[in-house]
Glycogen operon protein
Amino acid sequence: MAKARYSVQPGNWDNAGARATDNGVNFCIFSRYAEDIQLLLFETSASPEPYEIIALDPQVNRTFFFWHIFVEGLGEGVFYNWRIRGTCDTREIGCRMDGEKALLDPWAVTVDDRLWNREVACRPGDNVATAIRAQVVHDRYDWEGDTPLYIPLNAAVIYEMHAGGFTRHPSSGVAHPGTFGAVIEKIPYLQDLGITHVELMPIMAFDPQDVPPKTAAMGLENYWGYSTHSFFAPHPGFALDPSRARDEFRDLVKALHRAGIGVILDVVFNHTAEGGNSGPTISFKGIGNEVFYHLDFSDRRLYRDYTGCGNTVNCNHPIVTRFLIDALLYWVRQMHVDGFRFDLASALARGEDGNPQYHAPILWATELSPALGRSHIIAEAWDAAGLYQVGDFPGFRWAEWNGRYRDLMRSFVKGDTGMVAEVATRMAGSSDLYQSRGRLPSNSINFITCHDGFTLWDLVSYNRKHNEANGEDNRDGHNDNLSWNCGVEGPTDDPAILALRRRQARNFIAVLMLSQGVPMLRSGDEVLQSKQGNNNSYCQNNALSWFDWTLLEDNCGMHDFVRGMIAFRQRHPTLRRSRFLTGEPANGQTLPDITWHGVGLDSPEWDNPAAQSLALTLAGITAEEPPLHIMINMGKAPLEFAVPPLAGRSWHVAIDTDREPAILEHPDPCPTSGSRVRVAQRSLMVLEGRAV
């Protein structure tokens, strides 16, 4: 692009970011205490210096606290940053302007980080040659009729996955590993597995360099992506061509929708990549630190940290609320995503004083937005400062990662006693948490494992975390994993222990798929991926974290079981009810919708402190749907369970986790009325009532 001076106009304040038209580009940014603002234009993402600097006149280019300018004749493809100068008392007001810093536009939809140097951005002074840059792009994408899907949550099976790590392993066999396009090549696998939604770990542009110094010295980087800096832009590292990252992501969404699979984004609105006092200035710190972050009341040079990441986004400030809601609307309207999972969402419930608010503006604006009305909204209903809101998250649409379900099922399956009453409540959809407030079983996102913590195989293979590879002397990660190694810590060749571990893994998946609520699987668990006991692999962008496609053959039995359990759940509407169970017959049925048992009929051991067993009978939703009888024995010895009578049908064994394969393709007939069935130790059996 030839160097030239551009004619400029005042521009408009009502569209933040860079808006390209046929005649030029309108730029707009918010900054309350700015006194002098410059727009820096670069020919390429690698240009060390701007080819033109355009100064904005506060008398012409400022409306309220918005600065705006229209640059005539400027075309798409140009890169840009801002410089903002101003003076204010940081202790009293909290602003942190460094007039030498090249600032990234928070509203940018395409960014490039190939020159980025976090260390330089942490120091005062000029970093124009090493800053992350935004790019001006036109929007000419052809959606070919695609719209966001609407698959009700009660019908969903969510698959949490890393957009890069899913295909980065050499065994993936894709053309461009680690990219959005590579995931498209693996859609047939996702279809065959039977999941309904992918929940993508952060794909909004993040800072891979955001790791502790010792971790960085080991050559490691922020792999998970919980370090967002650009809330409107896809991460350039997941694109074959960073300048097309937005459209490459759209291609993925469109392809998933064609396969009938919805897209849920894991969004990190609770903190940013700028960290605390020693962190870099990327954008928000230099634009409006006093607005975008929670600051200490007595000394506004200090950050209030409710996230464990150095800063907390001040989500309920009007400007920030608008910014975040606009981001959600953008991802729904322009990117066609189907929902969001909010990381450390309880931080979003904190008002500007830091205290929890039931009527937090950001949460209710999300819940009540008509444009988001068909989008799934899922909260990780806790933060790092002790605010735990599982079952009490504000609103009625918000679903929640049910941490109580996870912890209880881990304890029960590993053999802890005296908790069958709560196990029954969790399997029935956690009515104690949701029913009294008019919420539904689908408000509970049930899970055993997720990205954060042990994999499923490590959950049954390790008693302790082993995070030495992270460079933090094994201090990072959770210490209380509610895991059991089945007798040996880590790898073993003992066939008995390996068989027990496989059975325990099947037990976890079976319980998950047989519970009311919404099941979520962690990608890789279906092929028994291990991370060698590392329960905090946030910095491991390597084979330790990547999906190893050779495991699909090595652990084909587990893969078939997971796929079979998903199919079994989808075949039985009684496992995914939209309303809570009542214990009474419904829809013209003669059987109650649920009946609880112990080893004897109608005698659950609610008050037995040694109990490790539970049974239940589920009626079909319609007369045509077969009833189910589920028997769970997590004790150390086999048990004989009574089988309830069944008029006009006979019971058949459909699932037995003590077997391999555990799902019977042709269910075995089973004695009926008055008879008993032997269920092996640490196993689960499901009977299906079939017409005689």
Observations:
- The radius of gyration is 27 Å.
- The longest helix spans residues 495-513.
- The longest strand covers residues 683-691.
